[in-house]
């Protein structure tokens, strides 16, 4: 049964597939004949163990995760990993320093957090605005860095890497919170990938960490156990109570991605959705403008301004959208304007509704 629902372009927490919500609803009172809800279930029960292992299996299948990688389901969100990464990995080398590529708000925050624990080298001159990825030939990478860090998709700024940085053998770490499973990724190129679930693969509460086994066991002494990858890996993410319901929801979303053809099929659709919006921006003779350079425009988060940053008109645009049942299109307060987030669960029809509204608004106001 299709429910008439608000079209949610939120940046996170974000839209979930309708089939996932319906299944969660169906199973809420009685999970698989247990007579209880997943919400009430012991995290050490066999039913929950099964949920954990199926969820991990789906993830391993969807991303072809090699056997020498651990998959962890942690708490603390993406921001928790801003600390978790340096606490666990700075100790890989004696100098305890790390290289950061800072292309937006989130990688900026991550670099700042890492400074609490070691030396941080920003590999390129500071950017005036987050609208591009500095050319890799201009990066100064430190060969004795413990790791190189970047954010594959800057959710606020709309800057996405279309390539994997080359690090000359230094461990590569990526925050993939906002484009996780939106496209295929070669996990073997990374030492560590992490992603909060609430953008593309579920609801808030669980953060996926995929980490190569040989990187475990180097945590700084001050690293809290709940953030220590070795401790968590050794206990199958059950050092303490895991975010059980969030893991269950993520499992349902992963199954949905699988049923929809996996990451390659999802990527094709995501390209199509993003093009719909960018094409309108580009054909609008400057009425709509996206500040981000073409080569690194995000498929997931599209920031744009109206009529030379006309804030009154932007407000009118948002009001009109909300009258049509389209919400959460307001840009992040640090950049202003509009932002359309087109995560996996946002359908082509949802995107078409926004596209046709943008065209109509353009013809009325140009
Ligand atoms: C949302 C987001 C974060 C922060 O996630 P929290 O779960 O709120 O801590 C970090 N990085 C990226 C890229 C994000 O999109």
List keywords for this structure.
single chain; alpha/beta; seven-stranded mixed β-sheet; three-stranded antiparallel β-sheet; binds pyridoxal-5'-phosphate
SSE topology sketch:
Blueprint: E1 7-8, H1 18-27, H2 46-63, E2 69-74, H3 77-89, E3 97-100, H4 105-114, E4 119-122, E5 148-151, E6 153-154, E7 159-160, E8 172-175, E9 192-196, E10 207-212, H5 229-234, H6 244-259, H7 262-282, E11 288-289, E12 301-306, H8 311-323, E13 326-327, E14 338-341, H9 348-365
The protein binds pyridoxal-5'-phosphate (PLP).
Pyridoxal-5'-phosphate is lined by residues 12, 77-79, 106, 151, 155, 175, 177-178, 196, 199.
Attached small molecules:
pyridoxal-5'-phosphate
Strand content: 5-15%
Q: What's the main sheet like?
A: 7 strands, mixed
Strand order of the largest sheet: 2-10-9-8-5-3-4
**Coarse shape:** globular
- Number of distinct helices: 9
Identify low-pLDDT runs: none
Q: List how many beta strands DSSP finds.
A: 14
Radius of gyration: 21 Å
Q: Helices and strands: which structural class?
A: alpha/beta
Summarize model confidence as the mean pLDDT: 97
Order of helices and strands: EHHEHEHEEEEEEEHHHEEHEEH
- Helix content estimate: 25-40%
Distance between the termini: 40 Å
């Amino acid at each position: 049964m299709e429910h008439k629902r608000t079209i949610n372009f939120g940046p996170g927490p974000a839209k979930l597939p309708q089939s996932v919500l319906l299944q969660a609803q169906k199973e809420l009172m009685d999970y698989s004949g247990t007579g209880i809800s997943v919400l009430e279930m012991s995290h050490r029960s066999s039913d929950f163990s099964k949920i954990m292992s199926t969820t991990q299996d789906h993830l391993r299948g969807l991303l072809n995760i090699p056997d020498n990688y651990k998959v962890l389901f942690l708490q603390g969100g993406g921001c928790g990993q801003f600390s978790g990464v340096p606490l666990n990995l700075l100790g890989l080398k004696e100098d305890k320093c790390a290289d950061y590529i800072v292309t937006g708000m989130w990688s900026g925050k991550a670099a700042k957090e890492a400074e609490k624990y070691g030396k941080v080298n920003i590999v390129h001159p500071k950017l005036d605005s987050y609208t591009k990825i500095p050319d890799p030939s201009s990066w100064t990478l430190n060969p004795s860095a413990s790791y190189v860090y970047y954010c594959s998709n800057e959710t606020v700024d709309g800057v996405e890497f279309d390539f994997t940085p080359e690090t000359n053998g230094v461990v590569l770490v990526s925050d993939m919170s906002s484009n996780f499973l939106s496209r295929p990724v070669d996990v073997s190129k990374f030492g560590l990938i992490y992603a909060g679930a609430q953008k593309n693969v579920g609801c808030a509460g669980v953060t996926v960490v995929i980490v190569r086994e040989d990187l475990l066991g180097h945590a700084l002494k001050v690293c809290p156990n709940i953030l220590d990858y070795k401790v968590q890996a050794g206990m199958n993410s059950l050092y303490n109570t895991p975010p059980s319901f969030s893991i269950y929801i993520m499992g349902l979303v992963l199954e949905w991605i699988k049923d929809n053809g996996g990451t390659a099929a999802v990527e094709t659709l995501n390209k199509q959705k993003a093009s719909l919006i960018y094409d309108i921006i580009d054909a609008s003779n400057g009425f709509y403008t996206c500040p981000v350079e073409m080569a690194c425009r995000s498929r997931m988060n599209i920031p744009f301004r109206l009529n030379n940053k006309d804030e009154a008109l932007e407000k009118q645009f948002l009001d009109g959208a909300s009258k049509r049942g389209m919400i959460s299109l307001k840009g992040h307060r640090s950049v202003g304007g509009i932002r359309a987030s087109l995560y996996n669960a946002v359908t082509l029809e949802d995107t078409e509704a926004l596209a046709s509204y943008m065209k109509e608004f353009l013809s009325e106001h140009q």
